Amino acid sequence: MSTREKTSEELLLKEEVLAQNEIVLHNDDVNTFDHVIETLIYACEHTSEQAEQCAILVHYKGKCTVKTGLYDDLEPRCTMLLDAGLSAEII
C-alpha cells in the first residue's frame, strides 16, 4: 500500500468520526418573529442578520437549519430553543 493511499484512508476515517449534526428549527403559528430572532441570537449565537434570515426561511419554507456542529455542542442549544417554546430538533 502506498503512502498516498494510506493517508487518504486515514483522512476518510477522521471525516467519518467528526460527523456534523444540525439543529433544524420548524415553523409554528405561535411565536413572533421578534421572539424567534432574539432566541436564535441567545441560543445559537447568531448575529441579528443571521437570526432574521433564519426566521424568514422558517416562516416561508417551514424549517431551516440554524446551527451545525458536534452533538455535544448542539444539545444544550436545542434545549434552549425548546425551553423558549420553539420547535426544534437535532438531526
Gap between N and C termini: 37 Å
Low-confidence spans = none
Count structural domains.
1
The CATH fourth-level homologous superfamily? Ribosomal protein L7/L12, C-terminal domain/Adaptor protein ClpS
Provide a count of the helices.
4
Strand content: 15-25%
Reading side by side through the largest sheet, how are the strands ordered?
A: 2-1-3
Number of strands: 3
Task: Please identify the top-level CATH class.
Answer: Alpha Beta
Helix percent reads 55-70%
* Alpha carbon gyration radius: 17 Å
**Overall outline:** elongated
CATH fold-level name: Ribosomal Protein L30, Chain: A
Given helix and strand content, the structural type is alpha+beta
In the CATH hierarchy, the architecture is 2-Layer Sandwich
Mean pLDDT: 90
SSE sequence, one letter per element: HEHHEHE
The largest pleated sheet is described as: 3 strands, antiparallel
What's the quick description here?
About 60% of the residues lie in helices and about 20% in strands. It is an alpha+beta fold and about 90 residues long. The radius of gyration is 17 Å and the shape is elongated.
